[in-house]
Amino acid sequence: MTSHAPQSTASAAAPQPTPPSAAPTLKDAFRQPKAVWAIAFAATVSFMGIGLVDPILPAISTQLDATPSQAMLLFTSYLFITAIAMFFTSWFASRVGVKRTLLIGLALVVVFAALAATAGSVNEIIGLRAGWGLGNALFISIALAAIVGATSGPSGGAIILYETALGIGMALGPLVGGLLGSVSWRAPFAGTAVLMAVGFLAIVLLLRREPLPAPVSPLASLRALSHPALRTLALTAIFYNFAFFVLLAYSPFPLEAAAAARGTEFGAMGIGGVFFGWGLGLAITSVFVAPVLTRRLGLIPTLVTTLSLLTVLMLALTFFHSSMAGIVTLIIIGGLLLGIMNTALTETVMEATDLPRGVASSAYSGVRFLGGAIAPAVAGPLAEATNSGAPYLMASLALVVAIAMLVIGRRHLRAVGQHQAAPLDAAEEAEAITVGDEV
């Protein structure tokens, strides 16, 4: 090759390209086209939907005559349908296109969130949250690949932006849920519907329609799990996400109980404030701490170290679950550790295989969300049958298993951090962007 289009000059001249394995900078993350920011905004709102119900779980339980275990099923139905749908979203996107997939997902969230605001029973909300989960799956599974595909810089920077959206969404979800939930438990659902409608319009206006991705088999994501590296990381993620959602979905109830023991009431606003701190810590470490650690320690050592610290934290919650100051402090520290874990794990998945990014992301996300779906369904009955600290003990055991999965399968992850940049001509670059590969 002797010439390239002007936008490919840097890669052709080969002076000092930045390899994909190099740690991305904040400049890489935030110097993005408007289309990327539109997707990131919608992703923020989408992730808000995960933590949005946290502050209103006790209110839903009380006002709709539901047990805490029933209320937590709002997470289970949402995450279970999200997980199952994730396995087929790459196939769906290959048939209808990335932009249409994003828009269909957002439209479903708008409809089911709006309907949840009018629900009359906890079982009705549980069912509507399942439909919400389907829309969320279509959007989330494609959002990362769409951001990577539309980015103007290294994919690592795009991943940081995606994780920033996740962190901000996780932080704002409980805060918005608390603020609106102090008015009515219905208000957070209506608010999400409105914000998602704004995200829908932003993507309609700012994201150009790409050519259809390469055809993908309906079973591509399931088959992708036969890849040893992806399977190792998926097994690690399912146990990690179990612990993640024990902390997120179960903790409002011990918080309320600890406050009641002191003669006070946390309420939706108090719970929302605690989890805002949790999500803010998650966002900060995702952006500012994780890149430093992965650069200095490497991805795999960062994962093992963070999982070990999370295990200690969950054990501490087992003993301090009845202390209001103790549980608040540990929840916020947990957010700091989860931010590091999310960024490092996502980047590891993206580097570990040569599978198309959309397929790898769908397979990995489907398995990890199953862990999140199981956690609320188990935590509530376990606490009712034993004591309030038992779910945290089980979460710590799940994290030990996650570490074991990572250590046992470490030989399959030798490619992590070893990829080298290869010059691409314009046609190859366009194809790589379309399927979500490195560019």
Question: How would you summarize what this structure contains?
Answer:
By secondary structure, this protein is mostly helical. It has helices spanning 9-13, 26-30, 34-51, 57-63, 68-96, 98-116, 122-150, 155-181, 187-206, 220-224, 228-250, 252-261, 267-297, 299-320, 324-352, 357-385, 390-408, 426-435. The protein has a single domain (27-418, 431-435), classed as Growth Hormone, Chain: A.
Structure description:
With 439 residues, this protein is mainly α. It has one domain (27-418, 431-435): MFS general substrate transporter like domains (Growth Hormone, Chain: A), CATH 1.20.1250. The protein has 18 helices and no strands. It has helices spanning 9-13, 26-30, 34-51, 57-63, 68-96, 98-116, 122-150, 155-181, 187-206, 220-224, 228-250, 252-261, 267-297, 299-320, 324-352, 357-385, 390-408, 426-435.
Topology:
Blueprint: H1 9-13, H2 26-30, H3 34-51, H4 57-63, H5 68-96, H6 98-116, H7 122-150, H8 155-181, H9 187-206, H10 220-224, H11 228-250, H12 252-261, H13 267-297, H14 299-320, H15 324-352, H16 357-385, H17 390-408, H18 426-435
